[in-house]
Design a protein that fits this description.
By secondary structure, this protein is an alpha/beta fold. It is built from 15 helices and 17 strands. The strands form 4 sheets. An 8-stranded mixed β-sheet has the order 5-4-3-7-2-8-9-10, with helices on both faces.
Amino acid sequence: MDWAGGSAGTPDPSLIETDLESRAVFGSWSDKSVGSTRDVDAAHALLEALGGSQETPTVLVTGSKGKGQAAAVAAAYLSAAGLRTGLVSSPGTVSNLDRFALDGTVIGAAVYNRWLRRVDAAVSSLDVPPGNYLAPTGIFTIMGHAMLQAAGAEVIVHEAGMGGAHDEISVLDRVAVGFTSVFPEHLDVFGPTLAHVAREKFGLIRTGDHVISVPQSPIPSMILRQTCDHVNVSAHEVPSGDFLSQNHDLGERLADDVARRLGREPWTGRIELCRPGRAEFCRTAEGTEFFLDACIDPVGMAAALSEAESRWGSVDTVYWSIPTTKDILGLADFLDGRGIEHRFVPLESHHLDYELPAGLQQALQFVQRETLLETIGDRSMIAGTVSFGASVLNEIGVMPTRLYDPDRIGSGEIPHI
């Protein structure tokens, strides 16, 4: 089948049937009651209902930060090794279309809408127990796996949506598992401590897994070692380095290992990722340069500031937006502590809550999303959720069609068998 163009359609977010998407993917989550439980086991049933299976070799990548980069690098190297490679990212960059790529090419909107209709019917037919719900990230994971299998993927790389042991990627058989740095994130879900988060992430590991990790801080490192000892596997570690190089090395190491196990010679040339909104310098229509990154906590913000400062010397203003489920006060305190002027940007969302409590409304200064790009000046950074970044990218006309190069299959350098 064609993945983009022709009957597949173009990867244009404006062509997504948004009402269908909301019902099929977000309906179960939106209708959940207080105290409901995420039903990861239902992912098995959904995969079968969509005609998918466990037959395609799968690479799983999780962690707290950088897992999207590591997963994309792994997919790019596997494509370059001559394997028709699927990539399921979580979340997308500009829209939910670029969650899904085959040999780097983003799914066409027509194909996406057709699969949404299949998902809508499948979810409606599932027997989800009362008090349980299907998580949107989990539905995207399973939908992507089934889509990519139907499109002829020989190997599929999955970035975890959130967590590890309780993420829907945990139901998939795997040939390798990779871990980026584990930080104290999602403490409201997996916490209250870093140790709890680490147990959730490394709880993905099973007996027989081939495990590769970036160097971890002491607590996650100890829990990784304990988990591997418990299931009698060894964890291989990539060399220590800066944040971006470690994630790249993790993706390359995963691809090298999997390519050899699937009978292909690993690619040793260079690759180029195209991941808009991830530590990227952009320009407004008027030519003002700004830095855009999907950071949602102090650790990520510190890394993003360092990247921007390496080019500008300093950052004048940070415009940021995260929902109330994140640590808004902690991020505000971090920016105040760095002495950086900052403005919060509230969003309207069907799925996330940006309604701040009175105390925070008084403590923060605000800029409306509609006037954001008219407001920013030189040395401005825009940071926050991927949905926030996507709205900015859409405004400046960014529409990803490919997530990485080279594509040795598409170029004819290596024939696809």
